[in-house]
Amino acid sequence: MTMKRRTFVLSAGAASGLTSLNALATVADATQAVDKILGQQKAAMGRVTLVIPPLVENGNLVTMKVSVDSPMTQADHVQAIHIVAEGNPLPNVVSFYLSPRAGRAVITTRIRLGDSQRVRAIAQMSDGSFWQGEAVTLVTLAACTEV
Amino acid sequence: MSFIAKVLLSCGVCAVVALGFLAKADPVGKDRQSSYALMSPDTQAMQDDPLLNPANFAVLDGQALWHEATGQKNVSCASCHGDAAVSMKGVAASFPKLSSAGRPLLSLGGRINQCRTEHQGAKPLAAESKPLLSLSAFVATQSKGMPITVNRSAANAAHLDAGERLFNLRLGQLNLSCAQCHAERPGQKLAGNAIPQGHPTAYPIYRLEWQTVGSLERRLRNCLTGVRAEPYAFGSQELLELELFLAWRARGMPLESPGVRP
Amino acid sequence: MSKTSRTLVTMPARAKKGDIVDIRIIVQHDMESGFRHTETGQRVPRDIIRDFRCTYNGVDIFRVELHPGMGANPMIMFTTVATESGTLEFKWSGDNGYASSTSSQLVVT
C-alpha cells in the first residue's frame, strides 16, 4: 500500500464519522481527573472495595458496587466517593456525597463502560485523607449489532 | 502451490469437514433453552426484579396508554378490554397469528394497530415507536410465565412454511442462514458471546446494546445486518413469517416478557 | 422547557430507630451521553440527569453528581439510618430543564 492510499483511507475513515478511536480517554486523562479530586494529596490503596464483574456482556449497563470500610461516625466517615473510568470518553463517571447519616458507605449503581479497562474508586474521608480501590474488567460487545 | 500453502489449505478443508461433522440438529423439546440461561447472573437479576428491570418503565407507560382514550371514537383499550391482567392473559403468547380467517398474519404490534384503526379510529402507531413498544410490553407481560401457544394450523401453514424456509435460507455477504448459528451451533461462541438458540421468549426486550426497549423485528434486523444482508423492512411479510416460525419453534416455552438481553 | 419522568423508590415503610435502611431508586431517563451518532453521522446532543439528592425531614442525607458515564434509567442503592419518623424526599435534576421528585414516608419506632 502506497503512502498516498494509506492517507486516503485514514481521512475517509475520519470523514465517515469513525471518531470512536479518538473519543476514548487515555489513562492520562483519568489520572488528571483523579489528581483534580486529590488536590495535592495522595490516595492510599485500601479500605475501598470496588466490585465490577470481571467479564461484562455489554458495557452499556454494568452493575457496580463500591463499599468503604468506615465506621461512619461524626468523627470518622466517608464524605465522598468518586468513580473514575480509565477507558471511557470522560473519566468522571459519578460522585457520591455522604454523611454519617448513611450508616454505612455501600453504594450500588449501574454505569457505562466504553471498553475493557480499569475503573477506580476514590474515597474522601472526613479527616481529609483519601483512599482508593479499583476493579479491572473485560467488556465484550454483542456479536450482532445494528451497524 | 508452496508446501505451506498446501498444508494451510488442507487444514482449512479439514476444519470445514469437522465443523460439518459437529453440526447438530435443531434442539427440540426439553433441549430447548431460553437465551436467559446464557446471561451473566447480573443481567439475569436485572430481568428478574421488576424494580431493577429497565423495561419496567415501558410496562408502566403501556399501562397508562391502556387507560388513555384516543382516536376519533375517543375510547381507551380499557373501555373494551377492561382489566388487562384478565383480558390479556395468554394473548401475547399466541402471536403472531391471523386475527381471523382470510385476514393477514399479524404480530402483537400489528394487532394493537389493527385495534387502534378499527375500534378506536386512531392512526396506527409507528413501528418501533415508544407508544407501540410500551403497549406491547404491557400486554406481553400479562402472559409472563405462560407457554407460547403458536401451533401449526391450516390457516397459518403456508406462512409457517415460508418462515421455515427463511430460517434455513443462506443470506448476506457472509452467506449464513439463521439455522447455521442458532439451530446447529447454539452454545458455541461468536465474538466472545455465546450463540443462543434464538427463541423469542422475552419480547419486547430491553437490549443493553440498544439502551432501550425494542421488538423482535428490530432484533432480527440486527441479525441480518450481522450477516451483512439487507435487513427486511419493519412490518414486512418476511419478518412476520420468520417471527411466526420462531414462535412455533419455541411453542410451549414460557414467556419472560419484558426481558433484558445483552 | 421543563420535563419530567417516572421514578420508583423502594424502601421499607417502617424501621426501628437506629436501623440502617436500604433505599433503592430508579428513574426513567435515556441519559443521552452525547457520544452517540445518528445513521447520517449527526452527533446526538448530551441530555442527562446531572444531580440527585435525598433529604430526610428536610436534612440533606445523600447527594449524587451524575456524568454521561452513568447508565440509562439511573439506578442507585444507598442507605440511611432511621432516626425519626418522617418524609424522605428524592429530587432529580438535569439538562434541558429536567426535574423529577417523589417522596416516601418512614415510620420509625
Descriptive notes:
The complex is a heterotrimer of chains A (147), B (262) and C (109). Chain A has 147 residues and is of the alpha+beta class. Chain A has helices at 3-15, 20-23, 27-38; strands at 43-45, 48-51, 55-56, 62-68, 78-85, 92-97, 105-111, 117-125, 130-139. Chain A has one domain (24-139): Sandwich (Immunoglobulin-like), CATH 2.60.40.2470. In chain A, 20% of the residues lie in helices and 38% in strands. Chain B has 262 residues and is mainly alpha-helical. Helices cover 44% and strands 6% of the residues of chain B. Chain B is built from eleven helices and seven strands. Chain B has helices at 3-22, 41-48, 56-66, 77-81, 84-87, 108-120, 130-141, 157-168, 178-183, 216-226, 237-249, and strands at residues 97-98, 105-106, 189-190, 193-194, 205-207, 212-214, 259-261. In chain B, strand 3 (189-190) and strand 4 (193-194) form a beta hairpin. The mean pLDDT of chain C is 96. Chain C is elongated. In chain C, a hairpin with a 3-residue loop joins strand 7 and strand 8. The relative contact order of chain C is 0.34. Helix content of chain C is 0%, strand content 52%. With 109 residues, chain C is mainly beta. Chain C has a single domain (7-108), classed as Immunoglobulin-like. At the A-C interface, strand 6 and strand 7 of A face strand 5 and strand 6 of C.
Beta-strand percentage range of chain A: 35-45%
- Report on the biggest sheet of chain A: 6 strands, mixed
Major protein interface: A-C, 34 and 31 residues
Structural class of chain C: mainly beta
Shape of chain C: elongated
Question: What is the topological layout?
Answer:
The complex is a heterotrimer of chains A (147), B (262) and C (109).
Chain A (H helix, E strand, L loop, with lengths): L2 H13 L4 H4 L3 H12 L4 E3 L2 E4 L3 E2 L5 E7 L9 E8 L6 E6 L7 E7 L5 E9 L4 E10 L8
Parallel strand pairs in A: 1-9, 3-9
Antiparallel strand pairs in A: 2-4, 4-7, 5-6, 5-8, 8-9
Chain B lengths: L2 H20 L18 H8 L7 H11 L10 H5 L2 H4 L9 E2 L6 E2 L1 H13 L9 H12 L15 H12 L9 H6 L5 E2 L2 E2 L10 E3 L4 E3 L1 H11 L10 H13 L9 E3 L1
Parallel strand pairs in B: 5-7
Antiparallel strand pairs in B: 1-2, 3-4, 5-6
Helix pairs in contact in B: 3-7, 6-7, 8-11
Chain C lengths: L6 E4 L3 E2 L4 E8 L21 E8 L2 E8 L8 E7 L4 E9 L3 E11 L1
Parallel strand pairs in C: 2-8
Antiparallel strand pairs in C: 1-3, 3-6, 4-5, 4-7, 7-8
